[in-house]
């Protein structure tokens, strides 16, 4: 059942698995152990982009993790939620901080840090296009950098802007 819940094996009846409390419990236990082991020696950050698109079983997993993890665990969950609609399930996290979009200068600084970190060079034109297209969302800025790294390393596309058309 855990393999089906994680998508390793095909599920015979998807609605049955999604409604199964046992499957959710198995995933929660697995993630709980993983987080505790990793957080014992390293600070661990889990990032979830577009929280509003999570399904009900995923929200149950997050709620189960929140209920089980000790307060002194070196673990942080960072989630972005776009839009004005309330989440379908209220998560009772210890701290909820709402951040607005980055302005152009903050986006430029983030892009500079990412460029230094991954030792990549971005032309001024490409930098401006990334800043404009990321629209102040840090995760989107990071995705552009990841795509650029993949293109440069893999040589997948000759034109740098071809990779950005899908974003």
Describe the structure.
The protein has 167 residues and is mainly alpha-helical. The chain folds into 2 domains: 2-79, no CATH class; 104-164. Helix content is 51%, strand content 6%. It has helices at 2-5, 14-19, 21-39, 56-68, 104-118, 124-134, 138-154; strands spanning 44-48, 75-79. A two-stranded parallel sheet has the order 1-2. It is elongated and about 50 Å long. The mean pLDDT is 76.
Show unreliable segments: none
Percent of residues in helices comes to 40-55%
Count of distinct structural domains: 2
Give the SSE string: HHHEHEHHH
Find the count of extended strands (DSSP E, 2+ residues): 2
Mean pLDDT, nearest integer?
76
Question: β content, as a range?
Answer: 5-15%
Structural class: mainly alpha
Strand order of the largest sheet: 1-2
Could you tell me how far the N terminus lies from the C terminus, measured between alpha carbons in angstroms?
A: 35 Å
The total count of helices amounts to 7
What kind of sheet is the major sheet? 2 strands, parallel
* Shape descriptor: elongated
Radius of gyration: 19 Å
């Amino acid at each position: 059942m855990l393999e089906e819940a994680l998508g390793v094996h095909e599920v015979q009846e998807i609605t049955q698995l999604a409604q199964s409390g046992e499957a959710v419990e198995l995933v929660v236990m697995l993630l709980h152990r993983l987080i505790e082991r990793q957080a014992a020696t390293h600070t661990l950050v889990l990032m979830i982009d577009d929280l509003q698109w999570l399904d009900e079983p995923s929200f149950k997993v997050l709620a189960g993790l929140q209920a089980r993890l000790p307060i002194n665990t070196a673990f942080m969950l960072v989630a972005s939620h776009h839009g004005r609609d309330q989440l379908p399930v209220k998560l009772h996290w210890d701290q909820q901080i709402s951040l607005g979009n980055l302005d152009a200068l903050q986006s430029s600084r983030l892009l500079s840090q990412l460029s230094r970190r991954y030792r990549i060079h971005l032309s001024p034109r490409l930098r401006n296009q990334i800043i404009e297209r990321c629209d102040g969302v840090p995760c989107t800025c990071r995705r552009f950098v990841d795509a650029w790294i993949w293109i440069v390393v893999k040589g997948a596309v000759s034109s740098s802007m071809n990779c950005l058309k899908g974003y």
